[in-house]
Structures are given as structure tokens and as C-alpha cells.
Amino acid sequence: MIRRLATALGLAALLAAPAAAQVPVLDIRLGAQAVMPQGDLSDLYKGGFGAYGRLGLPVGPIKLMGTATWTRLPGKTVDILGTPVGIEDQDVIGLTAGPHFSFPFVDAGLEVGYFSNFEKVGFVPSVSVGLLNFDVMASYTIVNSDPKANWLGLGVGFRF
Question: How far apart are CA 137 and CA 67, in angstroms?
């Protein structure tokens, strides 16, 4: 699975450079992230990992940012009435979009989107710091499911 992910990221990097050259205002980012479940979600799932791709387009004083994420949340073994029960791993695909405010090295925004497996709409406030072609991102995903599904993501990647 990791080999497929590395191949997909490599192909995306090769294809993103010509796209950015054609439209120099595009902000393209690809990266990997560590994910820490919060609240009720942390009772069932351990810390996980994922990948993200972001595409930004400046519109006046803001940047419209769209993000696609893949997140793997490994399940825990929980005790139900004295019997250990294993929780299945979750693979969550997220598609979000929203406005971002860009400053010289920092980018902050709020995106709204859909998250598979929870089949609900959620919110993702995020902050990115860009140094040269590197991207460091922190985000907090809030999915309005019952119980609430919240997780913190810390990612590193490349800007094209």
C-alpha cells in the first residue's frame, strides 16, 4: 500500500509542475500527515496517518483552497462486558473547500466538506507555514456525526 501511495505522490509531483507553469497563480501542495483522534473518536481509534493534496486559486484578497485527504484511523481493541472486541480500521476520504487568508509565510483558513465513512459534513480550520517549496500544515477536522468525529492532523509536504 505504501508503494502505491509513493507512486501516486511521485506521479502527482511530475504532473503538477507543468500545470503550475501554465497557470503560475495556482498554489499546489502535496504531503503526508500524522493524525491524532480527539474526544469520543479516541476511545475507538489509535493515532493514524494520511495524505493530502491541496489546490489554491487567489481571488482578490483571499485564496480559494480545495483539499482532498485520505486518512487511516487504526482501530483499538475495546472491552465490552468483559469481552475484548477489535474495532475495524477506518479509511476516511475528505473533500473540502473554503477561503484562506495568505500572509508572507503563513496561510490560515476554514474549509467545509464531506467525509466518507461518517457520511456527514464537517469543518476544517487549518494553518500552513511555507518555507521555500516546503509546506508544514496543522488542521483540526470536526465532523458533525453522532458521536462527533474530531481529529488533529499535522502534515509536511511540498508546494509547487
Answer: 12
pLDDT digits (tens, 9 = 90+) for 17-42: 554 444 458 889 999 999 999 988 88
89, 73 Cβ separation under 8 angstroms: yes
Domain that holds residue 56: 2-159
Q: Model confidence over 63-122: pLDDT tens digits? A: 999 999 999 999 888 777 777 788 888 899 999 999 999 888 899 999 999 998 887 889
Q: In whole angstroms, give the CA distance from residue 25 to residue 12.
A: 18
* pTM for this model (two decimals): 0.77
* Alpha-carbon distances, residue 75 vs 86, 103, 117, 158 (angstroms): 7, 38, 14, 30
SS3 percent helix, strand, coil of the chain, rounded to 5, is 15, 65, 20
> Is residue 52's pLDDT more than 80?
yes
Answer yes or no: are the C-beta atoms of 33 and 154 closer than 8 Å.
Answer: yes
CATH value at residue 53: 2.40.160.20
Are 150 and 37 a contacting pair, CB within 8 Å?
yes
DSSP per residue over 30-59, as a string? EEEEEEEEETTHHHHB--EEEEEEEEEEEE
Quote the number of domains for the chain: 1
